[in-house]
Design brief:
By secondary structure, this protein is an alpha+beta fold. The chain has helices at about 5-15, 20-40, 160-165, 355-370, 375-395; strands at about 50-55, 60, 65-70, 75-80, 90-95, 100-110, 110-115, 120-125, 130, 135, 140-150, 155-160, 175, 180-185, 195-200, 210-220, 225, 230-235, 240-245, 250, 260, 265-270, 280-285, 290-295, 315-320, 325, 330-335. Among the domains are: about 60-130; about 195-305, Sandwich (Immunoglobulin-like).
Length: about 425
């Protein structure tokens, strides 16, 4: 069943189909709530995912490889002979003044921006970028293991910060990383101003007489924030373009002069009338405050299927490694993923299709529990029977269980003793 089928099934069982967007949106929201609960309830095999995690050695200045920081923008670092990359974002930059700063945004191989102002400096070789923190995949709920396969080291030890202090794992030691340490759970600032919208003519193929919704996120330190509040506009009979107005996210010195901060904005659009998904339509620099959205498929993507869709997370998990990497290398991580929300009519749940009606029965239980408790009990019974059947087939068959826990839930200790058997402490 796809999302449209499930919505229709709910309305059919209720003998109620008002064909009102607000009612449909409410049912879709409830379906996603049940969808998340089902996937979060157990360690389903379809949620296991494997991915690369690239580790980087510290980058330092050298002869012919210099940086300079000059007024007026003391957050801008200009390099000569450098190879700045996007993997620098969120990492620690030691400036010529000897202080440490966080890299907010890398604009090119010779230009990047910091989160705070540094001391002005002429071209200098006294600088470095140290990779202290590695952000885990955006869809990561919980890590099963970190594995170093290229050097035959196998699984790496995974500990929390309390055990790090007990073991005195000094970050100044470099070498081949052997221990992964749970790090911060970053809660990034959410945009505080909604997008201003104006439907007009002069575009390409934005549909007329259609309601569109827009929101945006911040892209900063290599992480994406949760989205802003949603703004909506309905195009007229001859409209095919939407003008967008967003806030300036530059930083201002004491003058005050607006200067590049590196806090970019990612703009997403959704076709409300046709229940479309949230799709990335633009990435804007800090000083950019306007954008013309005039194409259904943005010029930045090859096709609709390759578009970037909004999938907000509340916090971003990260880890550190010991030893601090002495050379660039890649390890593999095996983790439990968070499936993408069901958004467009053709989206289908990630688990086997014979269990898709679990979502319908879960929503029907929710909708009838107050008005008709007896009917709610009926739907709950069907849900529980089918859910138990799915557990029996995919969990109780002896499949390896993933370490429980959620990055986006209250943190509990879920790490075993570094030298002994896994235990809850």
């Amino acid at each position: 069943m796809n999302l449209r089928d499930m919505v229709d099934a709910v309305f059919s069982e209720l003998d109620y189909d008002p064909d009102v967007p607000e009612h449909t949106a409410d049912v879709i929201s409830r379906l996603n709530d049940v969808y998340e609960e089902v996937n979060d309830d157990d360690d389903w095999p379809w949620l296991v995912k494997e991915s690369d995690l690239s580790l980087y050695a510290t980058v330092e200045g050298a002869s012919g490889v210099t940086v300079a920081i000059t007024a007026p923008n003391l957050r801008q670092v200009t390099g000569v002979g450098t190879s700045f990359g996007s993997h620098y974002e969120g990492q620690t930059f030691t400036a010529p003044d000897g202080n440490e700063y966080t890299v907010a945004y890398v604009a090119s191989t010779t230009e990047m921006y910091l989160t705070a102002s540094a001391t002005a400096s002429a071209a200098s070789t006294s600088w470095s970028v140290k990779f202290k923190r590695y952000v885990l995949p955006a869809d990561c709920v919980d890590v099963t293991e970190f594995v170093s396969r290229s050097d035959d080291r196998g699984p790496l030890v995974f500990i929390d910060r309390r055990k790090e202090g007990m073991l005195d794992l000094d970050e100044d030691y470099t070498g081949t990383s052997e221990v992964v340490i749970e790090d911060d759970y970053v809660d990034d600032a959410t945009p505080w101003v909604a997008i201003g919208l104006n439907a007009t003519t002069g575009g390409t193929d934005i549909a007329s007489s259609t309601k569109y919704a827009y929101c945006y996120t911040f892209l900063y330190e290599g992480r994406e924030s949760a989205p802003s509040s949603v703004a909506e506009v309905t195009t007229g009979a001859s409209d095919n373009r939407v003008e967008l107005t967003l806030p300036d996210t530059s930083w201002r010195d004491s003058t005050p002069t607006a200067l590049e901060s590196g806090r970019r904005k990612r703009v997403y659009r959704r076709d409300v009338t046709n229940n479309g998904p949230w799709m990335l339509v633009a990435t804007m620099d800090a000083s950019d405050t306007s954008h013309n959205d005039d194409r259904l498929i943005p010029t930045t993507v090859e096709s609709y299927e390759n578009a970037t869709h909004l999938d907000p997370t509340v916090i971003t998990p990260s880890v550190r490694l010991w030893y601090t990497a002495g050379a660039d290398r890649t390890i593999r991580i095996l983790y439990k993923r968070r499936p993408r929300r069901l958004a467009k009519n053709t989206d289908i749940p990630i688990f086997p299709r014979q269990y898709h009606r679990l979502l319908v029965w879960g929503v029907l239980t929710d909708l009838t529990v107050k008005t008709n408790p007896q009917e709610a009990q009926h739907w709950a019974g069907r849900f529980n029977d089918k859910f138990s059947q799915m557990q029996g087939r995919y969990i109780k068959s002896g499949a390896r269980r993933i370490v429980r826990g959620r990055w986006d839930r209250p943190i509990r200790s879920r790490f075993g003793d570094i030298y002994g058997e896994a235990s809850i402490t």
